[in-house]
Design brief:
By secondary structure, this protein is of the alpha+beta class. It has two domains: 3-259, 3-Layer(aba) Sandwich (Aminopeptidase), CATH 3.40.630.10; 265-336, Beta Barrel (OB fold (Dihydrolipoamide Acetyltransferase, E2P)), CATH 2.40.50. It has seven helices and 18 strands. The protein has helices spanning 3-6, 68-79, 97-102, 126-138, 169-182, 199-206, 223-239, and strands spanning 12-13, 21-31, 39-50, 55-59, 87-92, 144-149, 155-163, 186-189, 209-217, 256-259, 266-268, 273-277, 284-285, 290-295, 305-308, 313-319, 323-324, 329-336. The strands form two sheets. It has a five-stranded mixed β-barrel. A hairpin with a 7-residue loop joins strand 1 and strand 2 (21-31). Helix 5 packs across helix 7. It starts with a helix and ends with a strand. The model has no long low-confidence stretch (mean pLDDT 95).
């Protein structure tokens, strides 16, 4: 663990993670501003602690324009008190609350993208402090973590469980049980092109198992994707023995397995313009197939540029915004895993 992570977080908590029973409270993220010199940002948290059993962290709202996670976890918090529970659940429905309230991928306070700021900084910006708290204070308390995402404002995403299988064979077997229990329509081993600032990367560093997910997009709360998340969470909790008396909804899907293979599975634009796609979410596309055309509203006499897919695969997510800037991602593909 780095020196920065060894220093205790500046974030205070209104709950006692070791106390038995149900607690509701907030994380208090220090925030000194013109309106409130000695204030804090309250991020709601719930702890359900019933002794022997696994310890889990469930989070949503890592990105503030993705609402299936916050809604599913809020509903779970209301459902759990009626169940017999084992183990400990730490639930934070809106991890980056300022972003959730602003319907923004990044925080309106400091511009921080929480899922690109791990391991964070103890004495950094608000978003950096949240990342530091998760990695340094919460991950050491738990055996595993589930972080629910969606495509946000700029993407539509097929409902997909994101996986990060552990290296040990025995652990892989246990992990595979959870993937099957969640039973999302798709399960994806994601290649983030070396990105190590994510929640998933932080969980891996901490030596805990991780499940994520991309369920919908467009900054809406899709009812079909929400149902997949809710039922998947209940099946995973039952599989782990946290809710031994629950009878969760039966799995509707057997996950199709996919893998993202490097930069060739990402479609980017090198110029600004307006993108006209000629594919649909979920399409199977071929290497070299036309993906769309880039138009130039400030020079409409200029011929459109054709953009083509570098590799074959299935379109797992597609951009919602037609207006693009150089470097924007327009689609992500994946290949069916063997």
């Amino acid at each position: 663990m780095t020196t920065a992570l060894l220093r205790r977080s500046l974030i205070r908590t209104q709950v006692d993670f070791d106390r038995t029973g149900v607690q509701y409270g907030c994380l208090e993220v220090p925030y000194s501003q013109n309106r409130s010199a000695y204030g804090y940002i309250p991020i709601p948290i719930a702890v359900f602690n019933y002794g022997d059993g696994p310890s889990l962290l469930l989070t949503g709202g890592n990105h503030g324009d993705e609402y299936e996670g916050p809604v599913a976890l809020t509903k779970l918090m209301h459902w759990l008190p009626g169940q017999r529970l084992r183990g400990r659940l730490i639930i934070i429905p809106a991890l980056n609350l300022p972003a959730v309230l602003a319907c923004s991928r990044s925080s309106p306070i400091d511009g921080g993208n929480l899922n690109r700021l791990f391991p964070g900084k103890r004495d950094g910006s608000v978003t950096e402090m949240i990342a530091h708290y998760v990695e340094s204070e919460l991950f050491p308390l738990v055996d595993g973590a589930i972080d629910i995402h969606a495509g946000g404002s700029s993407f539509d995403h097929l409902p997909t469980l994101l996986t990060a299988p552990p290296p040990a064979a025995r652990a892989q077997s246990d992990y595979e049980r959870l993937v099957r229990a969640f039973a999302a329509p798709n399960a994806l081993a994601l290649d983030m092109l070396g990105e190590d600032r994510t929640y998933c990367a932080a969980a891996t560093r901490a030596g805990i198992w991780f499940l994520g997910g991309e369920f919908g997009g467009g900054a809406r709360c899709d009812p079909d994707c929400l149902a997949i998340v809710e039922s998947g969470l209940r099946r995973v909790l039952h599989e782990l023995g946290v809710t031994p008396e629950d009878t969760p909804p039966a799995a509707v899907h057997e996950s199709k397995r996919f893998v993202v293979q490097g930069r060739g599975h990402y479609l980017h634009t090198r110029e600004p313009g307006v993108f006209e796609p000629v594919f649909h979410l979920g399409d199977e596309v071929a290497q070299g197939q036309l993906a769309g055309r880039l138009h130039f509203p400030q020079a409409p006499w200029r011929a459109p540029i054709e953009l083509r897919f570098e590799k074959e695969g299935r379109v797992m997510c597609a951009r919602t915004f037609a207006r693009v800037e150089a470097g924007d991602c327009l689609a992500m593909l994946a290949s069916q895993a063997s």
